[in-house]
């Protein structure tokens, strides 16, 4: 067997996994958007600001956490600033920029969190057995520690 090729069965497993993820993720994002007006990117930015920065992060650190390039994040933040969800402030010590969640951004996040949680439960967690959870956890831990996936 050529290790550089994927068998038909392996490709089928890949496509099933990818399709399942896209369907589940799509349903969660759809409920988020329909019920709050936030996009996936809006929610991701607001959530990371609170979760990893207590409401504020350097713009580059936020880009890294979002796995977005600097330009994409900058454009998205401009749209979010216009809606009053975040502000950007230059840092005095260097040429960096700090992104800060506003009270409107915090309110939007507070409204969105239970909706996202319920959708994750409905479309993902309620479908899993204890064995599924163990398998997913093992896979996530293994891929998280694989240096080729960073």
TrEMBL record:
<dbReference type="InterPro" id="IPR036388">
    <property type="entry name" value="WH-like_DNA-bd_sf"/>
</dbReference>
<dbReference type="InterPro" id="IPR000835">
    <property type="entry name" value="HTH_MarR-typ"/>
</dbReference>
<dbReference type="InterPro" id="IPR036390">
    <property type="entry name" value="WH_DNA-bd_sf"/>
</dbReference>
<feature type="domain" description="HTH marR-type">
    <location>
        <begin position="1"/>
        <end position="145"/>
    </location>
</feature>
<dbReference type="Pfam" id="PF01047">
    <property type="entry name" value="MarR"/>
</dbReference>
<keyword id="KW-0238">DNA-binding</keyword>
<dbReference type="InterPro" id="IPR039422">
    <property type="entry name" value="MarR/SlyA-like"/>
</dbReference>
<protein>
    <submittedName>
        <fullName>MarR family transcriptional regulator</fullName>
    </submittedName>
</protein>
């Amino acid at each position: 067997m050529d290790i550089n090729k994927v068998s038909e069965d392996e490709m089928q497993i890949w496509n099933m996994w990818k399709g399942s993820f896209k369907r589940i993720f799509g349903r969660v994002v759809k409920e988020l958007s329909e019920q709050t007006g936030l996009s996936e990117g809006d929610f991701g930015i607001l959530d990371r600001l609170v979760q990893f920065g207590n409401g504020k992060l350097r713009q580059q650190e936020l880009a890294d956490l979002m796995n977005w390039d600097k330009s994409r994040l900058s454009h998205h933040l401009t749209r979010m600033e216009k809606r009053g969800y975040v502000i950007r402030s230059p840092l005095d010590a260097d040429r960096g920029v700090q992104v800060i969640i506003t009270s409107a951004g915090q309110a939007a996040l507070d409204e969105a969190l239970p909706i996202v949680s319920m959708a994750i439960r409905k479309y993902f967690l309620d479908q899993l057995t204890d064995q599924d959870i163990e398998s997913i956890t093992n896979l996530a831990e293994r891929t998280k520690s694989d240096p080729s996936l960073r």
